[in-house]
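Hi team,

Filling in the usual template for the complex we talked about on Friday. All components are listed, including any nucleic acid strands or ligand strings, so the model treats them as one assembly.

SUBMITTER: L.P.
PURPOSE: interface mapping
COMPONENTS: two
RESIDUES: 594
SEQUENCES:
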Amino acid sequence: MALLQKNSNMYLTLVRLRRNRLAILGLLIMGALILIAIFAPWLAPYDFATQDLISAFETPSWEHPLGTDDFGRDILSRIIYGARVSLQVGVLAVFIAMVSGGTLGAIAGYYGGRIDGVIMRVMDVLLSIPQILLAIAIAAALGPGLLNLTIAVGIAALPTFARVVRGAVLSIVGQEYIEAAHCMGASDAWIIIRHILPNCSAPIIVQSTLRVAQAILAAAALSFLGLGIQPPFPEWGGMLSGARGYVRDYAYMTIFPGLAIMITIMALNFLGDGLRDAMDPKMKR
Amino acid sequence: MTRFLLRRILAMIPVCLGVTFLLFSLLYVTPGDPARLVLGEEATEESLQEFRREHYLDRPLLTRYGLFIYNTVVHQDMGRSYMTRRPVTGEIANTFPVTLNLASGSIVLATVMGLAFGIICAVKQYSIFDNITMVIAMLGISTPLFYLGILLILWFSVQLQWVPSSGFDSLSQRLLPWITLSATSMSIITRMTRSSMLEVIRSDYVRTARAKGQTERVVILKHALRNALIPIITIVGIQFGHLLGGAILTESVFSIPGMGRLAVDAIKARDYPIVQGAVLYIAMAYVVINLLVDLLYAWVDPKLRTQCR
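RESULT (copied from the run log):
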């Protein structure tokens, strides 16, 4: 934090964020999850795909802390590897949505008029289908797989970003310093990138954090419906879906993957809420 | 008011056209040959060709789209399912009420409970009730509904054996799906009601109402709640839309024969006519709900009424 100037906006935001205990908890959990995802091969006691039918349906024990599934695969190892998939899909999908949706929103807000009309009507169409259904249709069109799942979730989240960025741009575009930049002969692209976007980064950052949670949920839901990551590759939603048939006799199989999703979503929500409170200058200090 | 309504209903037409066109384009690029899937691996090339010709699958995208719009608008005919050969309109008529019942039951539950919890939390801010409710609400927002559904089945169907774990005919069968689908929305509405109420509860006119000697009940329910209602209605409207999406997952968890499951199964089976019909209906329901929310605004906020003309 020493790198930041004492009274810069970023510094004040971080100071305010540090006072929010839940946000810090969320940050710590996310940090741990990222480390788990990176070091999965070293942390996981077993391989995620090795089947061992003799030790199938084993309840949690010292050997298999979270038990084994219907193919005798170690559930803890699969959850650890699953963190990779979920985080990757969540972050990448939001990145896709942010870049493409943000660009569209910035163009719509900056130019206004007919361009704005066309872009936002298309976004209205995308928003008039429930996001999960849109993601299902896109995932089906692209076929199964990690990248396709990411793209499907990303496109489904795109219109929200377009709206948020457009709103933020509209609130800035009429201000004097934008006019001043015009007068100095700056190009449109330069004004948007250099002057407008940095000044509306707060809602974009908040929206992104909360959206990663949504994207992870959507990806898990698609896998749950059998349209996302295909087995044997471990995905939390897919693991839940596979375990569902055994809920009567082997309940532990469903408990842990769901818990993993829940903790991740909660951590991101804490962090997103904390960021929103810390970045909103209207909030009481 | 009539002009506002008319304008909004007319604005639905391009949205519906856009949704169907988007869907047609998506299905057009979707891999998998419906003819092969329906007729099986042993089908001869002639029968495959025959199937494609019969369902216009050999025509270009725009022609197919044009034919769909023409048949839907002029003949109210959305074609027949490739799989069951039954008319799409019939399949939708069978499943749409189920999904609508699921979603509206859930939104009623979410709104009533959310309002009640939110108001109590705001009135008794920082009490034990408030703290516990806020923790549960946070859990509700973070739990994926398909996980919650499985957990509820585990507790109430498998262990306690109070209610059946699937179906949607009797009240006991509907209870778990309603709770599952409403949990997230209920949490969000509770939080929104609490913060919205907290904002108005300290305002001058609430103090005036108290100073006049109004009972606490009238102050909270009439003076405060009415003014806190606008942001709450927005959230309820947004949540109702989300519930239509969530219904797809709920129907899958509880094996409910609704439209969400119809659509997902049809997408997997490349049963294009069913997909088109189901998604069009869901999108239309979505748009109509948004319209109703806007009308509700006008009813709650007289200031907005003049703008709606």
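MY TAKE: Chain B has a mean pLDDT of 84. The domain at 94-307 of chain B is CATH 1.10.3720.10 (MetI-like fold).

Thanks, L.
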